[in-house]
Amino acid sequence: MNAIELNKISKKRENFFLEDIDLKIPEGFITGFIGPNGAGKSTIIKIIMDVIKADNGEVLLFGEPHDKHMLRENIGIVYDNLYMYEDLTLKQIKKSVAPFYRNWDEKAYESYIEKFKLPDNKKLKHFSKGMTMKASLILALSHAPRLIIMDEPTSGLDPLVRRDLLGIIRDLMIDEQKTVFFSSHITTDLDNLADYIVFIYNGKIVFQKDIEEIKQTFHIVKGHKNDLSDNVKSKLVSWEHTDELFTGLLEGSSAAVDKNENILIEEPTLEDIMYYKTKERS
Ligand SMILES: Nc1ncnc2c1ncn2[C@@H]1O[C@H](COP(=O)(O)OP(=O)(O)OP(=O)(O)O)[C@@H](O)[C@H]1O
Fold this sequence. Notes:
It is a single chain. The protein is an alpha/beta fold. It is built from ten helices and 14 strands. The protein has helices at about 40-50, 70-75, 90-95, 105-115, 130-140, 160-175, 190, 210-215, 230-235, 270-280, and strands at about 1-15, 15-25, 30-35, 55-60, 65, 75-80, 145-150, 180-185, 195-200, 205-210, 220-225, 235-240, 245-250, 265. A hairpin with a 2-residue loop joins β4 and β5 (about 65). The longest helix is centred in the middle third of the chain and has 18 residues, at about 160-175. The structure holds adenosine-5'-triphosphate. Adenosine-5'-triphosphate (ATP) binds next to α1.
């Protein structure tokens, strides 16, 4: 079953156009949603959450069209919005939101408070950014949603807090088999976490693949500039070079270039793929 399915979604904004977006987010996995600033990630998340309407196309959540009840009960959204409640404690916020959820699980809330080591009787204005993000995650998790959507949860966090938060998400998957849809322009967050990657650029989906397929599809190719023949160039998505050396991204079988023993083939990071794919298109 797909947790999220977008069929031919379009949305026009002043200087931006989301065009014919088809997307399938499978249940039970972590899907990373990557793309540079302004690519359209938040716009798509807002369309999924019914905060803004698409001009055309269809959104299905667990196979059903949008409906307020289904959205509230089944989706936990985690983003940087708790600053609106900075004069309240997490306990006070919890008291006001819990009655809206049929499946609110007070025991789960308390165990997350303990696990994440958050003081829930302290005003949010005294929380660090990382603590606020964990608070948002606790509120989302405590109503037992089937799907957790995180919009840039790690942006603005220092590397240690980011690692801590990513560890929490990983543990959630081991313990509870949640479905997570996680947008980030910090691709290193997703290198060892995501099962699937959706890559968006300029309002278009560049690819959606599982991590294994990505490893088989993309290769970093390196060598001396003299080995950057027209034949090698024709196989590369894009490349760059100094006076001596070149580095590029190959999409497809590495057999296309590995006959040349001076050429090195390496596994790319998601950042490499995003970098060279956006170079191709710019
Ligand atoms: N309310 C709005 N009205 C008009 N244009 C908008 C509005 N919100 C966003 N945009 C434009 O839509 C485009 C996509 O923005 P969006 O926030 O979806 O990108 P993003 O991939 O989430 O980027 P980031 O990583 O920077 O958050 C941008 O060009 C942005 O300027």
